[in-house]
Amino acid sequence: MFSTIWNTVFFNPLLNLMIIFYHFLGDNLGLAILGIAIIARVLMIPLVKKQTGMTKKMASLKPQLDELQKKYANNKEKLAEEQMKLYKKTGYNPLGCIGTFIPQLVILSVLIGVIRAVTASDLDGLYTWVRDLTGISNGISINTKFLSLELTKSFKDVAGEFGNFSMQSFPYILLSVLVGVVQYFTTVFTQKMQNVTTPKKDSKKDKEADPMANMQASMQKSTMFLLPLMTVFFSISMPAALGWYWMVQSLLLVVQYISLDFDKTKKGIQNLLDVFSKKRK
Known about the structure:
This protein is mostly helical and 281 residues long. 77% of the residues lie in helices and 1% in strands. It has helices spanning 2-24, 29-43, 45-71, 76-90, 98-119, 128-134, 155-162, 170-194, 204-209, 211-237, 240-260, 262-280, and strands spanning 145-146, 149-150.
């Protein structure tokens, strides 16, 4: 039953969309994946808007949070309790960022299956009208080369055949590193977009007074480094198609932030430049 639901709701629609893009984009699987990434980002717009809305809501709560910190400076338990009441009353969720991460994991999981099916020419999930439109069906070979990459292979696969430092392996490890680098700068960018003013360093007393804010700051700092490292690690072992998809997704996220709130983006970019200029000094 689960398999039927999975195929009907997720796998088959993505497979058909992939084949349509592939057909109309010159039988190019890399461009088809780019098309999938764009569609995924468009579908994510409501979730991203919700996340940015939560960020604005948190900024509006700062005066009330400051009052609570002063009022319950010597009672951490009562402070945490009152903060949670305030969050609940205003509808703020400090873990709201998870809402945009889970759909991405689902899409990646489906994409892995679609890439495998396309590679094996196992296209049973194609709708009849898509077969008629594209002329593609079971047994028809799909072109899986893009640039200098065989999109169905990973660095681990190619390195096992030609060696870790071979010319054949270089494009794959380069892609994996680029995915991590792009993911890192995208994470930094989005965090600066959510905090358009550069915060001053808090005193030890302030940090102890606001455990919820500390938890959120800690999650942001961990995400900044862990997510890019995890992306590199997984892309080394996964087909190049997924690394290409993930890198495009990261770049499109930046475009999405800019388009959703251009004024805030300008402030965020200035904040980002200020941070880098201070680091150089």
